[in-house]
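Hi there, hope your week has been kind to you so far. Would you mind checking whether the tokens look sensible for this chain? I owe you a coffee for this, so here goes:
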Amino acid sequence: MSKPIDVPQADERIVLEELQVELVPLEDLPRFQSLLRRHHYLGGIKPVGQRLYYVAAWRGQWLALLVFCAAAKHLRHREKWIGWTEAQRRARLGLVANNARFLVLPHCHYPNLATRVMSLCLARLAGDWQARYGHPVWVAESFVDTQLFQGTAYKASGWTQLGSTQGYGRCQQDYYVKHDRPKALFVKELKKKARRSLCVEHLPAALAAVVESKVPPRPTLRAGELRSLRAHFAAVPDFRGRVEKYPLSSALAMVACAHLCGAPRGHRDLKAFARRFTQAQLCALGVRREAKTGRYPSPSKATFGRVLCAVDPLRLEEALLEWQRQVRGAAPQEDLLAADGKALRHAQGAQVVTLIHPASQYYRGSQLVETKSNEIPAVRQLLERVEAAGCLVGIDALHTQRDTARQIVQEAGADFLLTVKANQKELRQTLAQRLPTPEQFFSPSPAPAAPLGADRAGEKPGPD
């Protein structure tokens, strides 16, 4: 329990001068939380995510406690004050910290102590956050219950009062309860022109890699867009005899949405992504409501696994191509068409060959490589069903085969661009005899630019 400070009233300035604010050691956290539970009107706190615990002490005696943690997700007055877009808010909210607890312990209240504690804490907050989490914080926020306090310490420390909250508290992911105790919102820039820095088009690369890359992708499509997306997959036949909660078109639309939002698409990743859909989005996707709770559930990892393993791949490909034609128009004609094989992540070593137009990244189709086989027959199967007439088909050296070249020219009506390596000695010798040396077509390094008016032989400029 905190004891009264044994300092004469006239020497309170000594306390302020010698006051120190430090991070709370791990072994002192139980004591820290115990004091919050006993003396703070909100009790203890168990913040999720990034957080720092501070204690203000004089000659080893604790006088005040502070907790900074992750910022509130949505605050109307804060978003207007900063001026950032919704996408910037989601990606850069880690640069804002919330002062969730500020407690001056009993028997330690006297003029200027709270202001001094806050000033010392804010002076080191950004540096401590950088040391602990690899990035600073640029803005601090806090809430004050105006039915109990006036926020004097925040006002005296240079914080700005923006307005009041609407008096709702979040109880579940998408469920809020009105508590009729709106709080005043205070904010403070910890960096010069912090608001402007939060609104720039691109953060510094090193900072973006630490802050923005760690923000999990979330579904941003609106209800109408999700309904349209689902409609594209309605033609894919459902392999299940009975559908309970998730029609096939709904699950496929979720996977497509994850692709559009840049989310990983392993089964576990898809489950985590699907949990970020709102109730309105799940309704638009055609998910069926649970009878007991009346809520729309999100699919499990096993559900995505069953769907992606059992869906008809050719019918799914037809739906994807039709969706692409509607969004991007018809496929490019007489353009380079490249085939490339990749090992699938989260697929136990499975490989797939994909045919695309490299310049426009226009997708033309995919073929799974059969077990104990290679890409050669997979590419030939792919070329059988893709319209490639007039295109130049480029494939790597593995496919430099007579049958593949014949299929490209005679059956597909296209031209080929095949690589010949040193292990194909006879073909390489034949090409060396019948074709000019590659140096005539591909110079190893660009020639220096000639002076203005000089010819290719390097002669001096002559008269006009």
User: Anything to note?
Assistant: The chain is about 35% helix and 20% strand. The domain at 331-439 is CATH 3.30.420 (Nucleotidyltransferase; domain 5). The CA atoms of residues 322 and 329 lie 9 Å apart.
